[in-house]
Design brief:
- By secondary structure, this protein is an all-alpha fold.
- Helices cover 69% and strands 0% of the residues.
- The chain has helices at 8-23, 27-37, 43-46, 50-63, 67-83, 87-103, 107-121, 127-140, 144-160, 164-180, 184-198, 206-224, 235-243, 247-256, 262-266.
- Helix 4 runs parallel beside helix 6.
Amino acid sequence: MQKRTPSKGAYLEHIFVLRAAVETKDVALFNDVALRLTSADYAVYFRGSEHKLLNNWAILLRHQNAFEQSRRAYECAKDIAFANEDTEQVVKIALNLHSILLKQGKLDEAKEVLREVETLSKETAYSTRLSHKLGMYYQAEKDYERASEFYQQAFVRFSLAHDFERAAISGLNLLHVQLIQRNRAGFWRYAQSVKEIIQQVPRNNSQYLLHFSVMQKIVEIMAFEFSKERANLPEHWQEMMFKYGLNEEVELYRAMIGLTSGYVQQTSNTKRQVRNEVLPTPSWYLNYCQQ
């Protein structure tokens, strides 16, 4: 008796579970579903989507701090998307790859990726994301004027597109760059607009409001030149910043108002440790990419 092909509904259900596995950082569940999707049973539906699976795998690896494996998975996914002539996915994956390269401190490679996708992105919906990534690149290069220009561009475009969460992130990065430059006038120029966008983020916006509040506090302290006794950040604010992975920002802001790093040292157990983990390579991955 001939084996029946699974239904399209069963395939879509697996795709839904796969996305849930990425959101919940469940490596075992992801690999279980990936094995099913890459089997001969689902080939009729899955063929041509290999790069999307690999992109999701790279995202999950990034969540697990397996940065080098994530980079290789992104590069493989990008190559397959390019071979499939899926321009929009090439740009999407390349922008994700750019973030990993910045985290690894590979600025020259990150710049090359941006140069590679700059022309392609003009033909896709990802041109605004490119502006944000350029802001990140120039911030890493400490070229804060150019970083500010690109963050402002991304903030405006995301806002007009009603993509409020990405607009909030670009806006907060813009304010952060103004703060690094101690440009209080520049900070206040955009502060109200950024706050209004944060308030429109459809999901939980507490992280963004906290970051905004901390930066606003720092600007106020700098403006009034408080003494060290008064120029302190509330401890619960700092603890929450650490929980959100913003420990580097806390250290910078404390230094800007003349505080020592003692608090950071005392609460080192709450800091997110940036490390490169190594996860076992699943068998399905080897069908598409080299180690």
